[in-house]
Amino acid sequence: MTDGVSVYGLKVIVVDIDDARLDFFRTLLDNVTVSFKTYNYVKDIPLTTSSTDNDLIVLSGDSINDVLSDLTRIKSLLPSSSVVTVSDEIEKKELPSLINAGADYTFTRPVETTVFLHIMGVLFELSAIKRENINLSSTISLFNAVDSTRNDEDVAMFIDNLGHVLMKEIGADSILFNFFDDYADNLDTGSTVIIPNKAEIPEYNIDEIKHFLSDYGDIFISYKPPLRFFDRFPERLVSLMLLPLMGKSTLIGFVAFHSYSKKNLFKPSNRRLFDVFSGYLARSVENIALYNGLMSMFEQTIQGFARALEAKDTYTQGHSERVAEYALMMAIEMGLPKKELDIIKQAGILHDIGKIGLTYEGLNKAGKLTDEEWNMFRQHPVIGKRIIEPITFLKPTVPLIYFHHEMIDGKGYPLGLKGNEIPEGARILAIADSYGAMTSDRSYRKALKHEDAIDEIKRCAGTQFDEKLVPYFISAVDKYRALKMAKGEPYPE
Question: Contact 326/351 with Cβ under 8 angstroms?
Answer without folding.
Answer: no
